Structure formats: structure tokens, C-alpha cells
UniProtKB/TrEMBL annotation, chain B:
This is ATP synthase gamma chain. PROSITE patterns: ATPASE_GAMMA. The gene is atpG. Keywords: ATP synthesis, Cell inner membrane, Cell membrane, CF(1), Hydrogen ion transport, Hydrolase, Ion transport, Membrane, Transport. InterPro entries: ATP_synth_F1_ATPase_gsu, ATP_synth_F1_gsu, ATP_synth_F1_gsu_CS. One of its GO terms (molecular function) is hydrolase activity. F-type ATPases have 2 components, CF(1) - the catalytic core - and CF(0) - the membrane proton channel. CF(1) has five subunits: alpha(3), beta(3), gamma(1), delta(1), epsilon(1). CF(0) has three main subunits: a, b and c. The lineage of its organism: Bacteria, Pseudomonadati, Pseudomonadota, Alphaproteobacteria, Hyphomicrobiales. Gene3D superfamilies: 3.40.1380.10, ATP synthase, gamma subunit, helix hairpin domain. It comes from Hyphomicrobium sulfonivorans. GO terms for biological process: proton motive force-driven plasma membrane ATP synthesis. It is found in: Cell membrane; Membrane; Thylakoid.
């Protein structure tokens, strides 16, 4: 079994996840990065995307939006403005998210914002196909 | 002197009122508990956010890169975001917030500043409309919202940020009621923009001061955090406000129920006295009538 570290996912409404995990893949502002136990101290903002948590109990995927990740050798804290488990993302909810993302794309002022929005739309469409 | 029938009517109407205030008090108590739970659940996010900003703020020396921290360098145009309740019957809750906002607005106006106001909640907007209505630039209605979600706060924050980018104001202040306890709610003014860095306590956890790497740069991360923090502060304000509202309503309804009880006692006493007086009077009439025969 891989070494574990303490992971906390916090949204403004509540503490969503807190416990020991093996690996977390975080959608960083400048690209995805994986955090394992003993990661060097690191802070990154995150873009809307898929957060993948591997814990001894299994794997979990969550859609996160805007926030920050703070990694230390023995813990990882993610502050996300919103986080939804991919399994809960069905039907109406998915359609709403997609609509919001498309609105964002339409409003995007620079390349960076456009790329972020496009990435999110892609991701949502893939979830939709799988559902 | 009121007749017996009048007294009976009054007693039954006060009893009905007491039932209503009692019910409202219990509803407020239940809702207060919910509101407190929500506020407690929201705390970890705000705490960690504060800590990160404090950590980062102590390290970043060039604050000019984060416009929300530096401000515009002027303080001519003040934006006041006043958050009150959608309903009344909550003691001094709405009045206290409005009073604080009114004082500040008048002080700023007297100093020759421009004041713009965003009113969240119906009651405050109505209370200040006559004096300060011309300064309103927006009203936000949360009446249809059953449970305040972060999205509600974020919407207000985005509005604020758009106005700020457009150069519509220099300083933004949030007015809400801080929840201390069921019987104590303190109207509070909190400066949102330019943001103030939370004081000290850099990295209590973790012991040895770790040097973090930042992606993108420290300045950008700090800028992002401060932006996120505005939504967080507004969210906190909204939640505190909800808890304060139900706290104030609960104690107001509690004293209303008690007053109704006292009134019923007094009225019942008067009613019984009048009834006895009438019986005595009738007896005297009968006796004196019998004696006359």
C-alpha cells in the first residue's frame, strides 16, 4: 500500500472531505498535477476541472471550480468555491453546468479565460457521454 | 368602565396573539439552530482562507500587483453594501443595521464624499429609502431564497468586482449584523475593498516554516485569493445575518409572549372583579327590594 497523507477538501458551505488518501490529481491553473505523500511545499490556484482522489477505499472524481490548493509534505488542503461528485452530476444539473460554462465562454475576454471555459465544456461533455 | 363582553373579547384576542407569537418564537428557534449549523459548517473554509492570505501577505512585498489590496489610492466614492432582513418582527435587528449605515452615510456625505449603496434585503432598503434613496444603485432581493447558498454571495461579489473594475467606487464596506449570541447581535461594518490583510499568526500549523513554491507567481496567487475572499466575506456576512435575524426574532417574540401573558392576567383580574361587583350589586338590589316589601 502506498503511503498516505492527510487531504482536506473545503468548500464555503462545508468541509467536504477530510481523511487519509494516497494520491490526488489536481487541475492546477497551469496544468494538472498529482500530489503524493511527501510533496514539496507548494501553492497553486486551480482552474475548473476534474479532481481525482485515490484513497485506500477507492477512487473518487469531483468537479471543482475556482480555488486554491496548498500542499505540504504531510497534507494537502484544497479550498474550492464549489465541488460536486461526478456521480451526482446527472440530467438537469449537468445541463445547467454546461449552460453556465458556455455562458462563460461567450463572456471570456482573453485567451486564457477562453481556454479554461473550453476545457470545462469538453470535460462536461465527456461526463455527459459516460452518464 | 368596559362591559363584561368587551373584556371577554379582549382577553380572547390577546390569547390569540399570544399563540401566534409563541409559534413564531418556536419557529425562529428551530431556524436559528439550522442557521447556526450552516454558519459553523462554513467556518473551516474562511479560517483556512484567512490563514493562507496571512501567510502569503507576510511574504509578498509588492502589494501593488493585487489591485484589490492596494485600492485605487483614493477614497472619494464609497460603496456601502447594506444587508438587512427580508422580514420584520425581529426586534431591533433591521433598525440597528440601518442606523449604523445611516450614520456612516451621513458622516461620509458631510465629508464631501460620494456615497453609493447596494441594498440587500427589503427592510433596510425601505427604512433608508426616504433619506438615502437617491444613493441606491442596486437592490438585491433574497426573499425567494430559502437557504442562503454560496452562489448568492458570489453573485453579489461578482457585481462588486465588475463595478470596481469599471472604476465605479474606491472603497467598499459591508454592513451586517454579527451574531454573538441569541440575545446579542452587533451591527458591524467590514471593509471589503481595499482588502485588509488578516493580522499575523503566519503558519501556526506545520511548525518549521516551509518555503512554498507558487504557481503561477506569488503575486497572482495572492491576487486570486483576495478576490475569492470577497465572496467568502459576503457569504459569511449573509450567514451571520440570517443567524442574527432569527436570534433577534426569537428574543423579540419571547418578550411579546411574556407581555401577552401579563396582559391576560391583568385583564382576567379586571374581568373577575367586574363580574363580582355586578353580582354584589344585583344581590343588594334583590335584598333591598325584599326589605321594602
Amino acid at each position: 500500500m502506498a503511503a498516505t497523507f492527510n487531504f482536506e477538501l473545503v468548500t464555503p458551505e462545508r468541509l467536504l472531505f477530510s481523511g487519509q488518501v494516497e494520491q490526488v490529481v489536481v487541475p492546477g491553473a497551469e496544468g494538472d498535477f498529482a500530489v503524493l505523500a511527501g510533496h514539496s511545499p507548494f501553492i497553486s490556484t486551480i482552474r475548473p476541472g476534474l479532481l481525482e482522489v485515490t484513497s485506500p477505499e477507492g477512487r473518487q472524481q469531483l468537479l471543482v471550480k475556482k480555488g486554491v490548493a496548498e500542499a505540504d509534505p504531510d497534507r494537502l488542503t484544497i479550498l474550492a468555491q464549489s465541488a460536486v461528485s461526478v456521480e451526482d452530476l446527472r440530467g438537469d444539473r449537468l445541463a445547467n453546468e454546461l449552460k453556465a460554462a458556455e455562458a462563460q465562454l461567450a463572456e471570456a475576454k482573453d485567451d486564457h479565460a477562453r481556454m479554461t471555459a473550453e476545457g470545462l465544456i469538453d470535460l462536461l461533455k465527456r461526463i455527459q457521454l459516460k452518464a | 368602565m368596559a362591559s363584561l363582553k368587551d373584556l371577554r373579547n379582549r382577553i380572547s384576542s390577546v390569547k390569540a396573539t399570544r399563540k401566534i407569537t409563541k409559534a413564531m418564537q418556536m419557529v425562529a428557534a428551530a431556524k436559528l439552530r439550522r442557521a447556526q449549523e450552516v454558519a459553523t459548517a462554513a467556518r473551516p473554509y474562511a479560517e483556512r482562507m484567512d490563514q493562507m492570505i496571512a501567510n502569503l501577505g507576510s511574504r509578498v512585498t509588492d502589494k501593488g500587483s493585487a489591485p484589490l489590496l492596494a485600492g485605487t489610492g483614493r477614497d472619494n466614492v464609497h460603496l456601502m453594501v447594506v444587508m438587512t432582513g427580508e422580514r420584520g418582527l425581529a426586534g431591533g435587528f433591521n433598525g440597528n443595521i440601518s442606523k449604523l449605515a445611516r450614520q456612516d452615510a451621513q458622516r461620509l456625505l458631510a465629508a464631501g464624499k460620494t456615497v453609493k449603496m447596494i441594498m440587500v434585503g427589503r427592510k433596510g432598503a425601505e427604512a433608508l429609502k426616504r433619506e438615502l434613496g437617491e444613493h441606491y444603485i442596486d437592490r438585491i432581493d433574497l426573499r425567494a431564497v430559502r437557504q442562503i447558498a454560496f452562489a448568492n454571495a458570489d453573485e453579489i461579489a461578482q457585481k462588486l468586482l465588475r463595478l470596481y473594475e469599471a472604476g465605479e467606487f474606491d472603497v467598499a464596506t459591508l454592513y451586517f449584523s454579527e451574531f454573538k449570541s441569541v440575545i446579542k447581535q452587533v451591527p458591524t461594518a467590514l471593509q471589503l475593498i481595499p482588502a485588509k490583510l488578516p493580522e499575523g499568526k503566519a503558519e501556526a500549523a506545520g511548525g518549521a516554516e516551509a518555503i512554498h513554491q507558487y504557481e503561477p507567481s506569488e503575486e497572482e496567487v495572492l491576487g486570486d485569493l483576495v478576490t475569492l475572499n470577497i465572496s467568502t466575506q459576503i457569504f459569511r456576512g449573509l450567514l451571520e445575518n440570517v443567524a442574527s435575524f432569527y436570534g433577534a426574532q426569537m428574543s423579540a417574540m419571547d418578550s411579546a409572549t411574556r407581555n401577552a401573558g401579563e396582559m391576560i392576567n391583568k385583564l382576567t383580574l379586571t374581568y373577575n372583579r367586574t363580574r363580582q361587583a355586578m353580582i354584589t350589586k344585583e344581590l343588594i338590589e334583590i335584598i333591598s327590594g325584599a326589605e321594602a316589601v
